[in-house]
Amino acid sequence: MEGGEERAPMLLLKKKKGTEEEEEDESRLVLKERAFIESKKLWRIVGPAIFSRVVTYSMNVITQAFAGHLGDLELGAMSIANNVVVGFNFGLLLGMASALETLCGQAFGAKKYQMLGVYMQRSWIVLFLCALALLPMYFYATPILVRLGQPSDLSALAGTISFWSIPLHFSFAFVFPLQRFLQCQLKNSVIAAVSSVSLLVHIFVSWIFVNRLKLGIVGASITLNFSWWVNVLLLYCYVTCGGCPLSWNGYSMEAFSGFWEFIKLSAASGVML
């Protein structure tokens, strides 16, 4: 009897330990399942965004590769023009467009869908004005690069490329707000699809202009302009032709209200990036 009484608490203790271990196993299983589900949701959003950025970078790399076939001077000039002149303005305008992530995200969460279109139009205006203010960098790229210590022949060719990149510069003012507008509505797959089309167009146009038509470094610069504007027009057509019925209700004069606050937010985002 005494032995049986001693064994009873031990059996209860073993059962308790077994139950605790089972609960731990179940909680681990539940955590793994939840982590897997959340990661799937995350990659549905992040995957297309990563792909779009890779495609955007690839277009510049492809242009530099075509320039490299023309000669070392052309490759160096294209690299400097893209990374110094265009690259600086790219970063500033991209940062300014990032203000839309905050405003459109808040409007989308509050179900004020019509405000997303208003904010995007406001961003177009602000970024276009900023693009106009930055134009002297393209016109005076050659003396700027010479002052920075670059050789005169390299600076002259980079200045020519910068001048021909002005249409590309203005495409940033429209494509970045369009991308942020769609991203806030979880339409990253649309951005990725349009980026893919633009990349294919860019490869074909680069081959035609540089290899077939023999337009040289100017032809290589024109291909980037053309491909980026294809990106802009495809996204614009998607938004305005029924792709975003809740958030796009046409042009509105409301885009001009609250202008100063929007400029301050955009400028802070631009400088930060």
Short description:
Helix content is 86%, strand content 0%.
Overall description:
The structure is a single chain. The chain is mainly α and 273 residues long. The protein has one domain. The chain has 11 helices and no strands. Helix 1 packs across helix 10 and helix 2 packs across helix 4. It is globular and about 75 Å long. The N and C termini lie far apart (79 Å). The mean pLDDT is 87.
- Kindly report how far apart the N and C termini lie: 79 Å
DSSP strand count: 0
Radius of gyration: 27 Å
- How many H/I helical runs? 11
- What's the number of structural domains? 1
Shape: globular
Largest sheet: none
Query: Which H/E pattern describes the elements?
Result: HHHHHHHHHHH
Q: From the helix content, strand content and strand pairing, which structural class follows?
A: mainly alpha
Throw out a few tags for this protein:
11 helices, mainly alpha, 273 residues
Fold blueprint:
Layout: H1 2-70, H2 72-97, H3 99-109, H4 114-133, H5 136-139, H6 141-147, H7 152-164, H8 166-183, H9 188-212, H10 216-243, H11 259-272
